[in-house]
Amino acid sequence: MHALVLNPNTSAEMSAEIRRTAEAVFAPPWSCEVVNAPAGPESLESWRDYALAAVAALPLVAAHPTAAGVVLACFGDPGLAALKETTAVPVVGIAEAAMSQALLVGGRFGILAARERATSLMDALVQGYGLGARYAGTTPLGMPVLELQRDRAVTLRTLAAAAELLTRRGADVLLLGCAGLSGFRADLAARTGLAVIDPVEAGCRLLRVLVESGIGISRSGLYAAPPPQRMNGLDALFSPAMRAFLERWTTG
Fold it and tell me: pLDDT (tens digit, 9 = 90+) per residue, 113-124?
């Protein structure tokens, strides 16, 4: 079994952290490949960034036709619905995976995010998944995404302080709300005594469960395959490779 793990930003440093976690989960007989978006934002910290990343992620799946499943390794799950409706194999977003695991081990989960801007993004994401009643809120670390791994001791202290705020709000499960925080789960759990979920690990493990259980994406309802759609003016905006990819869905 081979898994494709998509980092929809363009940070090679973050992909290296994602790869360490993914390879620990996708041990033999599994294997995995972690790929970056070919172009776009270096980190994803706004709706604008999410929209650009979603477009960049779509052709990556088509370029890896042997994958048994796909993990979208950004906690905003950008473009996840489009990937699910256009991909033949299971696709798991790391935010939806982390929240799903949280429901099994506690009453209310809280999210530890990078910047203040992420708070409203996480609020919207949780509400979109219909999990507001189990949500204790998001606490930002006040750190840029790309600095989370630069000084692990500082990040861990900041995570522990933010976790204390979330527990006061009723959280008994903590979600590391960024792929850039992958690898902090065990240390933060030891400091807080709470259940801590690494979303990259959660996404990879749940993809394994789906594939090994033979469960695919339902094609009736939310993720029904989209009908053919005429694509106009592609040469005004897209590269030849992207035009060729999009033209596979056209009626003309």
Answer: 988 888 999 999
